[in-house]
């Protein structure tokens, strides 16, 4: 059977991508209003140390970066925490979830950091249905114009010299940067499956701890503001360095893969 152009999961219908009212790695940026990004998850080591982020995109499914769950081919045992705001404070809202199965993209290359995308299937997702919301995925034909204002969200370090991540979830606004500008800033190839975002003067960028989290942008759909995860935070050079940008895996390129993994494993 021919695959539908926009499978159900991808569409912005239903309730995905709606932030609670008043919800108006981050170098620069500001602390987020608690629970104003209700699809944001923290990815923790088995010792409960946060080191990556992720995005809930469907009941029981988290989108993140492949490098967060694979280390030189070795599988990492991870915990997914939902409902988190202050990472070292137990506020009774957060729930730690076990991962039933992980799905890094089969063509993920650790050396070139290409196809840096993964899905996590959570065990017992019904435990969290009242706490969370799901971000929308883009439509296959969605294009992000250069200069579009998007957000990065995470518990990352605020300066390169900070050893630990931020206590509280932070957000920063970053514009989409053209491939041409981006390629000038890096010594290696930035491909069509990647998105570049950030400020040339530096200062606002994703840092360690935000890997795997979303590059998320608002879009008005039928009169409602929806938040769509266009990118997965992959890497950057340094931390908010001048003339360098953050690189994000382009989610719209992987929609068929995302739908196939979820459909075949639900």
From TrEMBL:
Organism: Magallana gigas (Pacific oyster)
Gene3D superfamilies according to UniProt: Trypsin-like serine proteases
Pfam families (alphabetical): Trypsin
GO biological process: proteolysis
InterPro entries, sorted: Peptidase_S1_PA (IPR009003), Peptidase_S1_PA_chymotrypsin (IPR043504), Peptidase_S1A (IPR001314), Trypsin_dom (IPR001254), TRYPSIN_HIS (IPR018114), TRYPSIN_SER (IPR033116)
Domain Peptidase S1: 26-263
UniProt cross-references to PANTHER family, sorted A to Z: ACROSIN-RELATED (PTHR24252), HYALIN (PTHR24252:SF7)
Protein's name in the database: Peptidase S1 domain-containing protein
Any one Gene Ontology molecular-function term assigned to this protein's record: serine-type endopeptidase activity
Keyword annotations: Disulfide bond, Hydrolase, Protease, Serine protease
Entry keyword annotation includes Hydrolase: yes
């Amino acid at each position: 059977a021919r695959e539908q152009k926009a499978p159900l999961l991808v569409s912005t219908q239903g309730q995905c991508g709606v932030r609670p009212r008043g919800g108006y790695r981050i170098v620069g940026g500001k602390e987020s209003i608690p629970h104003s990004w209700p699809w944001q998850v923290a990815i923790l080591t088995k010792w409960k140390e946060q080191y990556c982020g992720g995005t809930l995109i469907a009941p029981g499914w988290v989108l993140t970066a492949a490098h967060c769950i694979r280390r030189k081919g070795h599988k990492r045992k991870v915990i997914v925490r939902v409902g988190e705001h202050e990472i070292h404070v137990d506020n009774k809202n957060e729930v730690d979830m076990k991962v039933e199965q992980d799905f890094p993209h089969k063509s993920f290359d650790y050396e070139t950091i290409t196809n840096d995308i993964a899905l996590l299937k959570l065990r017992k997702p019904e435990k969290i249905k009242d706490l969370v919301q799901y971000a929308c995925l883009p439509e296959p034909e969605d294009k992000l114009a250069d200069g579009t204002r998007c957000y990065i969200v995470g518990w990352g370090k605020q300066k390169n010299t900070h050893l630990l991540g931020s206590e509280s979830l932070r957000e920063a606004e970053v514009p989409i940067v053209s491939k041409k500008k981006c390629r000038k800033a890096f010594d290696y190839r930035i491909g069509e499956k990647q998105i570049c975002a950030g400020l040339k003067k530096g200062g606002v960028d994703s840092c360690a701890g935000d890997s795997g989290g979303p590059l998320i942008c608002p879009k008005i759909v039928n009169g409602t503001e929806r938040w769509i995860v266009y990118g997965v935070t992959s890497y950057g050079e340094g931390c908010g360095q001048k003339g360098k940008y953050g690189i994000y895996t382009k989610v719209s390129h992987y929609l068929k893969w995302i739908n196939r993994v979820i459909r075949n494993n639900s």
